[in-house]
Structures are given as C-alpha cells and as structure tokens.
Specification:
26 strands, ten-stranded antiparallel beta sheet, twelve-stranded antiparallel beta sheet, 434 residues
Length: 434
C-alpha cells in the first residue's frame, strides 16, 4: 500500500515537505519528541504564518485555590503584583469553657500560615490584618478582583489587628520557625495580633450570647480576616509573593494564655469547610501592550492572574482531511537567564476557544514542560491538531498560561514569532495521508 508522509517544520514560516514511501512506517502516535531524521527536506514547499500575541482575561476565579498567596513584588517588566488573602475560621471546640476571664493573662495572639513556596525574594514586608464585616460563603464564587468590607474602626490603627510595632515581618519559606523553644518541622509565617482582641473574643465566648455554640453562630460573629501587605517604597526587582497551605492544621489563629499558672491555648481553624480566596492586583504600569498583535510577534506574555499568551496557526486548516497526525510538538522559547529570580515555572497549561468571539476556554488536556537547558517549553498538541483535521475543533488559537494560573505569582516572557532573539517558536508536525 502506498502512503504519503508529510512533515511540517515551522518558526515564523512553516515548510511543507512531501515524503513518498513504499512501505508502511512505524506508527508514532503519542510520542513526545521528534527525531530530526524525520524532518527531511525534499519535494515542494508551502508556507504558513504563525501569529503570537497576549490578552488579559476579564475574570479569574480565585476561591479555594491550592494556595493562599500573600505579598507583593515589583517586576521590571510586568510591574507590580500584589496578593491578599480572605479567609474564614472555624472553632476547634464548641462551647469552650474559659472560666473566669479576669484570671486569664494573654501571652500572645498569633495568626500562623504554613509556607509552601514563594516567587521573588525573601525579605521584610509590612502586614495588615483586618476583621471582615461581610460574610463569606463556601458555595459562592470569588474572583481575583473580589473584595469584602472590613472593620476599620477597631482599636487605634484603623482596625488593623496586628500588634503595634509588629507589622514588619520577615517573610521566607525556608527559614525555620521556633515556637516555645521548639523548632517546627515546616516553616510558618507567624503574625502577632493585638492581645486586646483576644481578650474581647474570650469575653464574648463567655457572655452567654451563644457566639461559640456552633460554627454557624461563630461565623456570624467572626466572619473572617483579610490578610494583606501594604508595602511602600518597593523598587523594581524587590519583593516577593508567598504561598501558604491554608488547609494544613498548622495554619490557624491561636490564643496563647495563662490561667492559674497553667499555660493553655485555643485554636481557630482554617480547613476545607472554610471559604477563602485570593484578591490579586496586577499593575503593568502601561509597559506591556496586552492586545497588540504586532508587538506580540516580537515578544508575548503570560502571567498568573494576568495575561495569557496566544499562538494562532492558520495553516493547520490546510492539512488534508485524510491525514493521520503522528506528531505535533510546539516549542516556545522564553526570555530567561538562569540567574534571574523570576523563573518561567515548570510547566504551562494549554487551552483554546471553541469558536471565534467566544470567551470561555476549552482545555486541550495537555501541558507544556519547561527544560532549562533549552530555555523553552515543549507542548504535545497532536490531539489538538488531529481534532482540527477531523473538524471536531475550529482552528481558532492556542492559549498558554502558567499551570497554576489562579494560584501562583509566576510570569513568562515568550519569544515571539518574529523575535530578534536566536530562538523562535517552532512547530513540528508529522502526518500521513491515506
């Protein structure tokens, strides 16, 4: 049986090569790399255009994400990234008996958040904590632009619950935490809160008003906290965003107190039953043309909670309808030096839209994997290309984002299709016509 094998290779321009074989070749479906021997230069040449650009989505869901994100940094290219955490707390025990409140001495009131990572630099950031006056709901959807009202009247510092003089905290996910002389297994951010607020809560618990009877009553009484940094004077290249596991038992609010000479503590927990979300502001300072397709041919961008990268490949529609696609690998080089603090992350997610003009993304069910030695991502899009050939998908565009698009602070600078850098995007396709 005669088959016609076709291999496409593309940077800004694709080259189409016809390969005629007299015997059946090995089926290469599912492989993730392309042997350069398969890229044979022979036969006729056709050309296709590759377009690259960026866009900013209207809304990004940020509730109950994998991580709570806190902190700000000033990227020399992307501008300022700043994230706040909104979260509920639940009781560690119902109807606690604190005995005679006047006999209690508050040792400390601490908000602990367990680190899981960061983006940017460790260092001192100025933290504020405010009590919410607006309900959160586990059944609600919250976006990165969502805010909730807070109490700005409590105490003498516009409602800030951080202990006076303790707002500046050193944030570092690798620094060991010591509590009561014991070194913890995992690092924590420990924010010391105002002791007077702890006394108020203990008195309210013992008031007979039922605030601590069950979690519904408690959430009506104490709706949660907004935790944010309010950094001033951060310069380009300074700061960092820090990731926390809010569902870890170590992430909690704790009153440490002494009563009748005995040291005690009471916890308010964050767990999977608590509503939480990240509020994220990304200010590109007008530096990045997000929807400029001409500028995008030189450089295009993707950022968590921000821009997504776009690649349009009109020539995919010209692949014959009787083709079986064996390989389709797109390589996306990035602008990144190993010593630079703002890494492109480990992988990227890939989506498309089902038809032009639509806003909802459709996952392509693949990821792009980053290789530092190549300074590029490679993405297997064979199934996507075959779906276009089979008329199961419209050939609209591929959309690239950091995999943790709604739960990290990563950003990526891709080389565009007409980049002056040495490496440009490439697409390798191998198919057979029957």
């Amino acid at each position: 049986m005669w088959r016609k094998g076709v291999t496409l290779s593309a940077t800004f321009l694709f080259s189409l090569f016809l390969i005629v074989a007299c015997k059946k070749k090995e089926n290469l479906i599912g492989q993730n790399t392309i042997d350069q021997n398969e890229l044979l230069v022979s036969g006729g040449i056709d050309t296709f255009t590759l377009f690259t650009s960026s866009y900013h989505p209207d809304s990004i869901i940020s509730d109950n994400a994998a991580f709570g994100i806190l902190g700000s940094y000033v990227d020399p290219v992307f501008g300022t990234y700043n994230s706040e955490i909104y979260t509920q707390f639940r009781l560690s025990g119902l109807n606690p008996d604190f005995g005679l409140i006047k006999a209690i001495d508050i040792d400390s009131f601490v908000l602990a958040l367990e680190y899981v990572g960061s983006y940017g630099d460790a260092g001192i950031q100025t933290v504020e904590v405010h009590q919410l006056t607006e309900d959160l709901s586990i059944d609600s959807t919250y976006y990165s632009f969502t805010t909730k009202t807070v109490d700005e009247t409590y105490g003498s510092n516009f409602g800030d619950l951080v202990e006076p003089g303790k707002n500046d905290v050193y944030m570092d996910p690798y620094a060991m935490s010591v509590v009561g002389g014991d070194t913890l297994n995992s690092p924590q951010l420990r924010i010391r809160l105002n002791k007077f607020k702890a006394i108020d809560m203990l008195e309210d618990a013992s008031s007979g008003n039922g605030y601590f009877t069950d979690n519904d009553a408690f959430l009506d009484y104490f709706k949660g906290l907004r935790i944010r940094t309010k950094n001033t004077g951060q310069m380009s290249g300074e700061g960092g965003a820090f990731y926390f596991n809010l569902n870890d038992p170590a992430s909690k609010l704790t009153i440490y107190y002494t009563q009748d000479g005995e040291h005690k503590e009471f916890d308010f927990l964050i767990n999977s039953s608590c509503a939480d979300f990240n509020h994220v502001d990304v200010d590109t300072l007008g530096q990045i043309p997000m929807t400029d397709s001409i500028a995008g041919l030189s450089t295009f961008y993707a950022q968590s909670f921000g821009m997504r990268g776009i690649v349009k490949i009109p020539g995919l529609s010209d692949i014959p309808k009787n083709a079986v696609v064996h390989k389709a690998i797109i390589e996306l080089p990035v602008e990144y030096h190993t010593s630079t603090k703002y890494t492109p992350g480990f992988d990227i997610s890939v989506a498309t839209i089902l038809e032009e003009g639509a806003s909802q993304l459709f996952s392509v069910n693949t990821i792009g994997v980053y290789a530092d030695y190549r300074k590029s991502f490679q993405v297997d899009i064979r199934n996507y290309v075959q779906a276009i050939v089979n008329d199961e998908l419209e050939n609209t565009r591929l959309i690239f984002s950091p995999t943790l698009h709604n739960t990290s602070a990563e950003r990526i600078i891709f080389n565009g299709a007409q980049s002056l850098n040495k490496a440009q995007p490439k697409l390798y396709i191998l198919y057979t016509e029957f």
